[in-house]
Amino acid sequence: MARAREGLDGSESKSAMPVVADASTLIRGMFHRPSDKPQPGMGVFPSEWLESTFMPTALRRVMTVKAMQDLSLQYGEPAGDSGLRRSLAAKLSSINVPCTADQIVTTVGATHALDVVSRTLLRAGDPVMVEEPGWALEFARLESLGMRILPVPRHADGPDIEVMERYCAAGEGHKPKLFVSVSVLHNPTGYSLTPGSAHRVLQLANLHGFHIVEDDTYSHLAPEHATRLSAMDGLQRTIYVSGFAKILAPNWRVGFLAASPSMVSRLLETKLLTTLTTPSMFERALAWCIDQGQLRRHAERVRLRLDGARGRTVKLALAAGCKLVSEPAGLFGWVDTGVDTDALTQRMLDEGYLLAPGSLFHARRLPGTLMRVNFASAQDATFWKVFVRVRSQL
């Protein structure tokens, strides 16, 4: 029996039952860390990696007395600050996603953008194809909305087309309405889509009439010339989603979506029904960071630092007897530990470490030996020593 442990919110647990590591546990861990130790299961950069001097400068530039009065005492533009949307349109053009500012809607982070898309295109009970393994929060979010999840195995080159074809061959009323994809630096595997696979996915979408929401949350870490469905499709059946919490400022909560002119009005209506407008001051500050090249230079520094951390983490993981299931890339590693990672997660929580077991990234929560590690937070040799000791006890 696991001993009673302190809750993730700092309170003493009233039960000796083990804490279950699920999507909610990871989310709560973002706000109430199990300890002050590095947390390899977290999905964000350490806060010290994101410290900068240009962000306070950006805020000072937009928060003049007049701006505070103008922006604070009235609602912002429904689609988001027009200056930011122009900056985002230019940024998307640089990665070959063609759109104008009028095709962009800002949101309260990328997660909110995904929610706006789901609420616009889907109704409870609708089938949705989601890559598996996939983002734990996305499975939980869609389930909470009552959607029927259709897992699509994700391979190194892209999603399993044969599985998608079988779903699409289902009878009327059972065909998928949406496909959720992380094309570049997929979470948790680090895989990136190939042009051939992207072409087949788009052919299937056009043939069977489903939409694709492309979550490009890790675009700031992506290699040049990465393949994106939205670039190949020109935002016809695709809706592009991204944000800045991962790379810049988690508490600014600025995200956005880009879609075809015919679709964007529907998405904007959903945004207004769920949140009205978004904070103009943060959006204007972000526009300044983009226009001045500050965001680009900051992302370059983070990528360089991450490259070093990734190399150190891989060496430590291999020395600890683990195997890398996929080629290390981006922020996350997909690691085979050789033991049941659900059980390992419970034991490591007692040691003050939050892990992300592989079952989290599957729709049916099947136990297994895989786990996701954050390269930026798993380069601590002490963690791997504890890991080896605890694993040997299982």
Please outline the major beta sheet. Answer: 7 strands, mixed
Instruction: Give the overall silhouette.
Output: globular
Alpha carbon gyration radius: 21 Å
- Element string (H = helix, E = strand): HHHHEHEHEHEHEHEEHHHEEHEEH
Protein structure class? alpha/beta
Strand content: 5-15%
Give the termini distance in whole angstroms: 13 Å
Give the neighbour order of strands across the main sheet: 1-7-6-5-4-2-3
- The residue fraction in helices comes out at 40-55%
**What value does the average pLDDT take?**
90
- Give the uncertain stretches in residue-range form: 1-19
Number of strands: 11
Number of helices: 14
Written overview of the protein:
The protein is 41% helix and 12% strand. It has 394 residues and is α/β, with parallel strands linked by helices. The strands form two sheets. It has a seven-stranded mixed sheet with strand order 1-7-6-5-4-2-3, sandwiched between helices. The protein has a four-stranded antiparallel sheet with strand order 8-9-11-10, with helices on one face. Helix 9 (229-233) links the parallel strand 5 and strand 6. Helix 2 packs across helix 11 (280-291) and helix 5 packs across helix 10 (261-275). The protein starts with 22 loop residues before the first helix and ends with a helix.
